[in-house]
Amino acid sequence: MVDAYSKWIDIHVMNSTTSEATIAKLQQTFARHGLCDLIISDNGAALTSKEFADYVTSNGIEHRTSAPWHPASNSCPERAVQSFKEEKRVQERQQKQKNYHDKKSVNRQINLGQGVFARNFAIGSKIKWIPGDVIKQSGPLSFHIKLPDGRIIRRHIDHIRVRNFDCTNKENEEKCDNDSELFEPEITMPISTPETEHLFIYTEA
């Protein structure tokens, strides 16, 4: 619901958009802000029913509907709907980024002496990850890793996967030799859920 003068938006989450449910939400808004003189809405079934007509008439409210199949006739709430949906999408993207960062941050703790897999950037190599041990932190997010053949490489933390076991520990050597199950799970973005349906009514005080 959008107030024509102030452009104040009242948003109600509704599991049902029947006339009865719509009237209940209107009553909540009117209890906070008082009755309006005029309601302009689309031609939804809940807003063109006899029950809704009786409700607005009994409260001395004039009700007008926009031209069918012509959203521009009811442009104020249409703009409000678009603004709300855009803001909702922005918030969802920000939440996804936060969830991604939080989940990734849990696994970004790298310790010296820790057994890891480092991304292999060798041209032509079919091996994507190579085992090694962290021997030095060379920057806030970069580390020196010693490979089994004695070579030392430097990798950003984004190109490091922590092993489930510390391969510097003799007791874990047999487990560490089985490389197939030592990767951290790949981090995936959460799946977005369908948008909740909202009903907007344009009100003019």
Automatic annotation (TrEMBL):
The record's Gene3D superfamilies line, in alphabetical order, gives: Ribonuclease H-like superfamily/Ribonuclease H (3.30.420.10)
Q: Where is the Integrase catalytic domain?
A: 1-139
Residues annotated as transmembrane:
none
Which biological processes are named by the entry's GO terms? DNA integration
Entries under Pfam families matching the protein: rve (PF00665)
Top-level taxon of origin: Eukaryota
Q: Which GO terms describe its molecular function?
A: nucleic acid binding
InterPro entries hit by this protein: Integrase_cat-core (IPR001584), Retrovirus_Pol_polyprotein (IPR050951), RNaseH-like_sf (IPR012337), RNaseH_sf (IPR036397)
Which SUPFAM superfamilies does the record cross-reference, listed alphabetically? Ribonuclease H-like
Please identify the protein, giving its name as recorded: Integrase catalytic domain-containing protein
